[in-house]
Amino acid sequence: MNADTNTQLRRYRIASVPGDGIGPEVIAAGLEVLEVLAARNGTFVLDVDHYDWSSERYRKTGAFMPDNALSLLKEADAIYFGAVGAPDVPDHITLWGLRLPICQRLDQYANIRPTRIFPGVKSPLRGVEEGDLDWLIVRENSEGEYSGHGGRAHVGLPEEVATETSIFTRSGVERIMRFAFGEARKRPRKLLTVVTKSNAQRHGLVLWDEIAAEVAKDFPDVTWDKELVDAMTFRMVAKPKSIDTVVATNLHADILSDLAAALAGSLGIAPTGNIDPERRFPSMFEPIHGSAFDITGKGIANPVGSFWTASLMLEHLGETVAAKILISAVEQVCAAGILTPDLGGRATTADVTRAVCEALRGSNFAPGGENIPAV
Ligand SMILES: NC(=O)c1ccc[n+]([C@@H]2O[C@H](COP(=O)([O-])OP(=O)(O)OC[C@H]3O[C@@H](n4cnc5c(N)ncnc54)[C@H](O)[C@@H]3O)[C@@H](O)[C@H]2O)c1
């Protein structure tokens, strides 16, 4: 962040990487909304660097990103990312070509995934309304099942073998547990569920459980429990109110957070932040959904996930009032029934974006944010 001495404006440099599929559609919508919000607020400016890193770039040049990509990103205050994945490029090439190198090399080890039911949005769960499902899933984002360790031997022969090794380090597990207990402590219920599978995964996940118990001693005000990942899926569906903050491994949280998004109405709503809590490097913010080939180019992608993502990014940058104003505007629009088809509505991406911009322009929130509804 830079302060503009002439205008007193706070300036942030944002690296925008829309990527593939609906990524460019929802990131363009998000940047439009952010511009309106910044103009309306008058206290900060976003200087956006646009990067075309994508599968299209890979097809043309053989690389998703240029060689100096990480140094370019390190100059940013935050990264605003769309999605990566194309029908004609294998998924492991796209993921390991763009998103994972950014998360791993910038040590964004804490992935946060809030989920809740917005006003006007229906959960597929019977009798579950707004307020009944309000979760924060914390995903270990640097090792575990996605550490990239493994290989293949005897390729193409009948005895071919492939290994996929999960890595759990004491420092890696301890830092994500400390982060998760800390996040649970910030929320009103101060309740954390540690998701595990230590009955079957008897090395890495036993270490995971042991470290959870050790770290818990430093957070006596946080109530915590432990749940096997399979039982957790049942609990999320059958007893959503019993859950608040959740911490899980890279793979487990990846799966649980898609379920969480669906239970809150749609994958198109949910945001995520890939966070470096120590702020050595910029953090990266993205909707949790992928490229969504089935709706790419149709103009119906739900932009709410990218708006909520933008709000998380502002919060991380310290613009907490603006972050709340943005979420309030999105809630107003959802409550008014301006919803894309994934939420049962008929609005287009452009309709929802326009409505959020109008809500922001017309909103009469006090400049200090005192009259912003609680979020
Ligand atoms: N972070 C990422 O970049 C990321 C995440 C997940 C998947 N992917 C990639 O995206 C590609 C497609 O993956 P997938 O089909 O498993 O998952 P996906 O999230 O792209 O789509 C799953 C379903 O959700 C719907 N959906 C997703 N976002 C939506 C939105 N904003 N509005 C309305 N509907 C939405 C899609 O139409 C589809 O029916 C693959 O190449 C995959 O590897 C990338």
Helix content: 25-40%
The helix-and-strand class reads alpha/beta
Major β-sheet profile: 11 strands, mixed
pLDDT < 50 stretches: 366-370
Distance between the termini: 25 Å
Count of DSSP H/I helices: 11
List the SSEs and their pairings:
Elements: E1 2-3, E2 10-19, H1 23-41, E3 44-50, H2 55-61, H3 69-74, E4 78-83, H4 91-105, E5 110-116, E6 134-140, E7 144-153, E8 161-167, H5 170-186, E9 191-196, H6 204-216, E10 223-228, H7 229-238, E11 245-248, H8 250-263, E12 271-275, E13 283-287, H9 304-317, H10 320-335, H11 349-362
Parallel strand pairs: 2-3, 2-4, 4-13, 6-11, 9-10, 9-11
Antiparallel strand pairs: 1-2, 5-6, 5-12, 7-8, 12-13
Helix pairs in contact: 1-9, 1-11, 5-6, 7-8, 9-10, 10-11
Bound molecules: nicotinamide-adenine-dinucleotide.
Q: What would your notes on this structure say?
A:
- The protein is of the alpha/beta class and 375 residues long.
- The protein is 39% helix and 22% strand.
- The chain has helices at residues 23-41, 55-61, 69-74, 91-105, 170-186, 204-216, 229-238, 250-263, 304-317, 320-335, 349-362; strands at residues 2-3, 10-19, 44-50, 78-83, 110-116, 134-140, 144-153, 161-167, 191-196, 223-228, 245-248, 271-275, 283-287.
- The strands form two sheets. Strands 1, 2, 3, 4, 5, 6, 9, 10, 11, 12 and 13 form an eleven-stranded mixed β-sheet that branches. It has a two-stranded antiparallel sheet with strand order 7-8.
- Helix 1 packs parallel to helix 11 and helix 9 (304-317) runs antiparallel to helix 10.
- It is globular.
- The chain starts with a strand and ends in a 13-residue tail after the last helix.
- Residues 366-370 have low confidence and may be disordered.
- The protein binds nicotinamide-adenine-dinucleotide (NAD).
- Has multiple catalytic activities. Apart from catalyzing the oxidation of (+)-tartrate to oxaloglycolate, also converts meso-tartrate to D-glycerate and catalyzes the oxidative decarboxylation of D-malate to pyruvate.
- Its cofactor is Mg(2+); K(+); Mn(2+).
- Belongs to the isocitrate and isopropylmalate dehydrogenases family.
- It catalyses: (2R,3S)-tartrate + NAD(+) = 2-hydroxy-3-oxosuccinate + NADH + H(+); (R)-malate + NAD(+) = pyruvate + CO2 + NADH; (2R,3R)-tartrate + H(+) = (R)-glycerate + CO2; (2R,3R)-tartrate + NAD(+) = 2-hydroxy-3-oxosuccinate + NADH + H(+).
